[in-house]
Amino acid sequence: MTTKKSKAVKRQVNEYAAFVAEVKERIRSTQTKVLRTTNAALIELYWHIGKGIVERQERLGWGKSVVEKLSVDLRTEFPDQGGFSAQNLWFMRQFYSELRTQSNLLRLVRELPWGHLITILSKTKEAKERAYYVRAATSYGWSRAVLTHQMETDLYTREVLAKKTHNFKRLLPRKDAKLAAAFLKEPYVLDFAPVPANVGERQLQRTLVRHLKQFLLELG
Fold first, then answer.
1. What does pLDDT average to over the chain?
2. Cβ partners under 8 Å of residue 84, min gap 6
3. Alpha helices by DSSP H, 78-191
4. pLDDT at 102 > cutoff 70
5. 67-76, 107-116, 142-151, 154-163: least confident range
6. Distance separating alpha carbons of residues 71 and 6, to the nearest angstrom
7. What does the H/E/C string look like for 159-194?
8. Long-range contacts (CB closer than 8 Å, 24 or more residues apart) made by 150-156
9. For 217, which of 3, 11, 45, 148 is 20 to 30 Å away at the CA?
10. Backbone torsions φ then ψ of 51, nearest 5 degrees
11. What is the CA radius of gyration of the chain?
């Protein structure tokens, strides 16, 4: 009798634990959906504000001072809401101005936090490079720190050059070709080897041979 009762209690405990886990997962999922919806709405708002500034400057000849005045008026009306500094309004203007002709990116930018977009707008000049980082950050779910690192190490240029200079797809099996191409575009930390900034290819080769073990560990 005791055994049956203990089994029943254990089953109830397990059922409750499973129920709690299910509810927690549902809450987390809902929180993610809410954050995505909120972020998309915020990006939409910033797009609309940037569009309004650009269109009125073009149509009515408004000067730069309108951004400063708009910032003061918005912060006066919404003192508890951030995001309306003059600098941020300039980013909104830039956001609309530089992406209004790239309709293929509009869906993707709604999935990125505003801080990511500021980083991309601040650190890129060409439309293709900007589009590359928008797609990459969205696809891989990069944090802002990772995005900044990839941009500072110029992943875009390295990937473009890797595609232009190697013939891995022709000479290697598909799996190995992808791995080899990845090596070309990945920045490696060579702090273990005392390599001067203006090192020649032969000197670099000799240095790496002397530190071969550490180099292989860095490659993974």
1. 81
2. 71, 74, 75, 78
3. 86-99, 103-109, 114-123, 127-140, 144-152, 155-165, 168-171, 174-185
4. yes
5. 154-163
6. 67
7. HHHHHHHCCHHHHCCHHHHHHHHHHHHCCCCCCCCC
8. 151/119, 151/120, 151/123, 151/124, 152/123, 153/187, 155/185, 156/129, 156/132
9. 148
10. -65, -40
11. 26
CB neighbours of 217 closer than 8 A, spacing ≥ 6?
none
Segment 79-106 mean pLDDT: 91
CA angle 139, 155, 186 (to 5 degrees): 95
- The DSSP line for 10-40 is HHHHHHHHHHHHHHHHHHHHHHHHHHHHHHH
CA 203 – CA 207 distance, rounded (Å): 6
Q: What angle do CA 66, 69, 75 make, to 5 degrees?
A: 135
The angle that helices 155-165 and 127-140 make with each other, rounded to 10 degrees, is 100
Decide if 96 contacts 47 (C-beta within 8 A).
yes
Taking every pair of Cα atoms in the chain, the longest distance, rounded to a whole number of angstroms, is: 88
For the chain, the residue count is 220
Token pair 């990116």 is found at 105
Distance CA 89, CA 198 (A): 42
| The residue type at 37 | T
Q: What is the pLDDT of residue 35?
A: 85
| Angle, CA of 208, 177 and 185, to the nearest 5° | 55
